[in-house]
Every structure is written in C-alpha cells, then in structure tokens.
C-alpha cells in the first residue's frame, strides 16, 4: 500500500482503522468511504452468487445487488458472539472465577469442621453428600480455570494478529471485541442506507424508462379508438 510515498510499503492496518471509514466523506457530506466499500462489495458478491452477465439488464443488476446486500448485511448475524463478548469485562470474569474457587475452599473447610464434631447419622449423611458435591465441583472448577486461561490466550493471540502488540492492550484485553461490535453496528446502518439508495435508483430508472406496451395490444387499442371516432363523425354528419 502507498508504494513510492513517504508512507509507502504498508503491509497491514489495525482493525480499528475500519471505524475511520465513515470519517472520509464525499462532496455531499453524507456519503462516506464505507458507503462506497459496501456498494463495491454487494456488486462483486452479487455477481459471484448470480453469475451475472456483463451485459445484464438493469433489472438483473438490481437483483444481483440485492443478493450482494444480503451477504454483506449478514455479517452482523455471523458475529453475534463477538457482540456478546464485547459486553463482558475480563476483570469481572477473572474475579468471578476466583470467587468460585475461594467459595469451594470455604465449603471444604466447613465440611472438615463438621466432621470433627462427631459422625452421627445426620452428620455422616451430610458429610457424604457434601464430599460428592465437592469432588464434582472441584473438577468443574479445574475445567473452568483451564477454559478461562485458553480464552484469554486466544484473545491475546488475535489481538497481536490485528494490532501487532497486545502489550498495549493489556489494560483492556477485550477491546478488540468492542472495535468489531462498533464496526458491525455502523455497517448495519450503512447497509440499510445503501439498500434505500439502490431502491430509489431502481424506482427512478423505472420512471425514466417505462416498460413498453405490447405492440399488438397498442395497435388494437389505437384501431378501436379510430373506429369510435369514425362512427361518431358519421352520427354527427347532417342528413339529406
């Protein structure tokens, strides 16, 4: 990118650069670079799906663009889990896991104290039940901690892939999800606007180039009008 300039040889861009696409506006002050990108995407995606002919009619082109718009606007539903992740706080998540682990330790201590008081029938049953629960809970706790570690590692990996240095993002490890969520929200809005623009263009084209009337029906209609005019002129002529 930008080869030959003082900013040339750029090999990539940060993901949050996508948010700046709406900051670059056209002469009308409304159309943004993202509008242009979406239009190009729906055109290419629609052509790919419909195997569009280069010499296709305006009607076929409109159908092609609708197909492409469905693909582009479908990105939001594909990234539903990203939106959910963006609503999470990594500090709260880690704190909750830590509290669960500490809570299990407290339960284990209560069971041990209870056993030291003597093992009558009720105490024995309680101890057995709680020990079974503790074994299952501890296994679940180990699994949860492992999943937390893997999840944070994957987030760090994907952050490094898109941002280059995850160390700068450590204060907000889930920030990358916020970026994607905000971009998808903006993309949804632009897709709706582009869809409305394309609909207005189709309607405008239909008014400029009306569908021609069937020549046979048109001829029959004109012939009927001529016969009616000839008949009425006969009726109005003076009699001798």
UniProtKB/TrEMBL annotation:
<dbReference type="InterPro" id="IPR015425">
    <property type="entry name" value="FH2_Formin"/>
</dbReference>
<protein>
    <recommendedName>
        <fullName>FH2 domain-containing protein</fullName>
    </recommendedName>
</protein>
<dbReference type="GO" id="GO:0051015">
    <property type="term" value="F:actin filament binding"/>
</dbReference>
<dbReference type="InterPro" id="IPR042201">
    <property type="entry name" value="FH2_Formin_sf"/>
</dbReference>
<dbReference type="Pfam" id="PF02181">
    <property type="entry name" value="FH2"/>
</dbReference>
<feature type="domain" description="FH2">
    <location>
        <begin position="1"/>
        <end position="213"/>
    </location>
</feature>
<dbReference type="InterPro" id="IPR027643">
    <property type="entry name" value="Formin-like_plant"/>
</dbReference>
<comment type="similarity">
    <text>Belongs to the formin-like family. Class-I subfamily.</text>
</comment>
<dbReference type="GO" id="GO:0045010">
    <property type="term" value="P:actin nucleation"/>
</dbReference>
């Amino acid at each position: 990118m930008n080869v030959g300039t003082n900013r040339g040889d750029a090999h990539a861009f940060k993901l949050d650069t996508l948010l700046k696409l709406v900051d670059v506006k056209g002469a009308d002050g409304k159309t943004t670079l993202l509008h242009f990108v979406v239009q190009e995407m729906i055109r290419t995606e629609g052509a790919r799906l419909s195997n569009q002919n280069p010499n296709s009619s305006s009607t076929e082109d409109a159908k092609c663009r609708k197909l492409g718009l469905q693909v582009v606007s479908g990105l939001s539903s594909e990234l539903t889990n990203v939106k959910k992740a963006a609503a999470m706080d990594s500090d709260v998540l880690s704190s909750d896991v830590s509290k669960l682990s500490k809570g299990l330790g407290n339960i284990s201590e209560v069971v041990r104290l209870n056993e030291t008081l003597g093992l009558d029938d009720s105490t024995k049953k309680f101890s057995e039940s709680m020990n079974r629960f503790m074994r299952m809970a501890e296994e679940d706790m180990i699994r949860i901690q492992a999943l937390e570690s893997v999840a944070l590692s994957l987030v760090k990996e994907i952050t490094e892939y898109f941002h280059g240095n995850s160390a700068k993002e450590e204060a907000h490890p889930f920030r990358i999800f916020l970026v994607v969520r905000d971009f998808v929200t903006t993309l949804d809005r632009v897709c709706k606007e582009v869809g409305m623009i394309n609909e207005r263009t189709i309607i405008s084209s239909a008014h400029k180039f009306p569908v021609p009337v069937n020549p046979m029906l048109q001829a029959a209609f004109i012939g009927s009008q001529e016969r009616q005019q000839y008949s009425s002129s006969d009726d109005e002529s003076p009699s001798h």
